[in-house]
Each structure stands twice: as structure tokens, then as C-alpha cells.
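Dear colleague,

Following up on yesterday's call, I've attached the two folding results inline so they're easy to grep. Please treat them as preliminary; we haven't cross-checked anything against experimental data yet. The first protein's sequence and C-alpha cells come first.
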Amino acid sequence: MKYCTKCGASCADNAQFCPECGSPLPQGAPTPNAAGGQTGGQGQYNYGNAQNYQAQPGGPGYQNQGSSNFGITPRSIPVAIILTIVTCGIYGLYWLIKLNDEVNQLSGEYQATSGGMVLVFTIITCGIYGWYWLYKMGDRCDRIKGMNGSSGILYLILGIFGLSIVSYCLIQDTINKAIGA
């Protein structure tokens, strides 16, 4: 049985595309199995909860799974900050969406709220949902790092004091380290 590397859905061995998300499936390459390992090759792909994650040599607690970067492109934090300032926050909205989707992918929570919905809910609630989102992102970042921390509380406090961009930077740093950038 194959598993989609994008959404984690189970697929038939002879399938070329995922029946759930339509992504092309790797042919002849090892794919993750239900136990969180893979059916061949070296290293271990982990799609699931925090118990499956193991630290890799790239840094303590981070999930870089060999050469796989989960299809995520690393983002320069200083460039993201400058673009957010220059575009009067418009790039910050795009950044929020990308952060959400990438953290959901890395933490294995494929059914979590999408980045677009996070943006809509934050606008509708005049920013209150954004604080909840920061808290949840902290929990997911801790899971990606393979630790039991309290990043969610830190991100929430930063958001309450109007420093959400600092939380964005910390989340982006976690993503960059997790994909080995």
C-alpha cells in the first residue's frame, strides 16, 4: 500500500495519483507506511502525531526527513519582514496563510483549518481568532520540534501585545529548520 506524500491518504500500489488530493505519487520510490516508517531506503518519513517524530542530525528535535523538504520552500525571515512593511501588511496576510498551511503539513494535521479560512476568521472576529491561531501554531511548532514546550503561550502573549510578526518569525524559523534550510 502506498501513502500520498502530500496529504497522507492511503493509495493502491498501482495508483499514479492520489485519490484524495490528486497529487502524483512517487513511482518506485519508498513511500511512508501506516506505522510512520517507509517501505525501503534510509531515514524515516513521519506523517502523524508527535510520538512518530524523531530528531535528525540537522538540529536537536527537528524533523528534517533526509532529503525530503515536504515540498516546502524555505523563506528568508528578513525578506518576509521587509516585504510585509513595504506592502503595508499585504505580504503579511499571504505569509500567515503560507505559515498555517506549511505548519499543518509538517505537523501531520492535514484536516486542520486552512490558511485562507484562518485569514477569514481573523478578519471576521476583528483579530481575536488570530490570537487563538497563534496559540495553536505554538503547539504545532512544539510538535514539529519534538518537544513539550509552551511556545503557544509565548506566541499568544506576543500577539496580544501587537508583536504577531515576531511570532511569525519564530514559526518561520521552525519551518526552515524542520525542512533543513
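Below is the second protein, in the same order (sequence, then structure):
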Amino acid sequence: MTSTKELLKMDLYALLGVEGKATVKEIKKAYRQKALTCHPDKNPDNPKAAELFHQLSQALEVLTDAAARAAYDKLCAAKKQAEERTRRLDDKRKKIKLDLEARERQAEADAEADDKVTRTLEEEIIRLREEGSRQLQEEQRLIREQIQRERESRLPTHADSSSAQQVNRNVTPKLKLKWKCKKDDDTNGGYSQEFLQRLLQKYGEVLNVVISNKKKGSAVVEFATVRAAELACKNESGLTANPLKITWLEGQPEVVAPTPTNHFAAGTFAPSQTSLSTERDYESLVLMRMRQAAERQKLIEQMQREDEEDEAVKA
């Protein structure tokens, strides 16, 4: 026997073979036709005939009663609305799924494009490094050649025979620098050896920078050329908040009156005399470098003695 809950899940109109707007007369007529075909007396060998006949009878009872039919119609309408909502929800879910799949495909395409751009950039960077390495080697070669030319240009020649230039060969130009600095100032007034080196090397080659260890605010700078020392002494003022006081310590050029030049004699040196002069000039250069090293050591010792004397006076 079919239960009431099972019966309500069925489509009673379809069971009888009528439409939802069928009249009671049409429903009864359809019932009689269906019932005759599935009556148990006519189908003794069909066990399902009795069940179908019972279902047709229950459908007739519901659909021929006005109140029961109205409640059943509401239930059917609610089922249809629920099915429609489910269908729409399924469509929405399907659309979301399709959108998600499309986004995933787009993300994969974007990632592949990014990888391609990254690979291209890496290849370009490798190429630039190779080219830059060749350019760097070329620049370093040019710098070495320039340094060699500068060294050769500083070699003493036969023409540099004035008394002032003879003095500059033996003594490298040195400047004394002073600035304000408190005893407890760890920054030494803003001046360090590296800072002074960078500050002054724009005027020319700086051979050495010696900062006093005991007396802050004092240093000695040794230049390779008198010209570089002159430019630094005349133009450099240091930090705006803590300016430098620069004075000559050694190697200051003297103003020498020009002497007549024997152009005829200057142009008629014999080859043997020129070669001999070059050898002597090279020996003089070697001796000058040795004296410069000794002078730097003496200079450091002199600064230490001055610092000790200043400390003793203050004490």
C-alpha cells in the first residue's frame, strides 16, 4: 500500500492522465478509464495492478475534494518554485565554476608570460654583464695608461732646472690642516682620514693623510704635486659648519725671476749628453722617493712630539 507521504510526492494529475486545470467530471472519467485497465480482477497475475489501482483511487479522492485539491495544488506550486530556485542556483554555480576556470586559465597564461619576460630579462642582464666586463677591462686599461703617463710626466727632465723645481723634487708639498673639535667628539669634528682623502683628491693626487692621534682637529696632507697643494690651499674650505684652516708646512714654491734661455744651446744637446741626463734624472727620482718616505716618518714623529708638548702645556 502506498503511504500518504509517498502519494504526495507523486504527480496525481499525471497519474490519472489529466491536466492541472481538469474539471471534476474530467478527473472521474479519466479515473474510470485507468481503473478498468488495472483492476485486480482483470489482472490476477500482475501483483502491481492492485498497487496502481489503489494509487488511482487515492488520486481520485484528493482531486475531487475541493479543499484537498487546493492544498495539493499549493504543494505542487511550492515544489515547482523550489525546483526553479534549484535550477537557478545550479546555473549560478555553473557560471561561477566557468568563471573560476577562465580565471585559472588566464592566471596560467599570465604566469607563463611573466616567466617569458623574466627569462628574457635574465638573458639581457647576462649579455650586459659580458659587454660591461669588456668595457670595464677597456676602461681599466685606459686608466692604467693615464697613470703611466702621469708618472712619466712627473719625471724630472733636463728643462726643469730652476732652483724652485729642484727644491720640489727633494721635498714633497705638505699642508697642515686645523679645525675645531672637542675632546669627547668621536667624529673628530666631522673629519676622518677617508673624508679628507676624498675631499682633497679632486685637486690632484694625495700621497698621504696623517691625522693626529693625541690632538684632535689637526692633520697633515702630502700631495704629489705643488700645483695640487696650491689649489687645495687656495680653494678648499671644508665643511660649512666646521671650516678648515689650511697652511703650508713644506714644499711651498718660491717666486723665482725668469732667467734668459739660450735657445741655441737648448736645441743642440748631443745624444750622449741627453742619455746621461736621463739616467741622472732617474737616479734623482729614486733618491727623492726614498727621502719622501723618510720625511713622512719624521713628520709623523714631529706631530706626535707637538701633540705631547701641547698636552704638557695645557696640564
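For the second protein, one point worth flagging: The beta strands are 174-178, 206-211, 218-223, 245-250.

Best wishes,
A.L.
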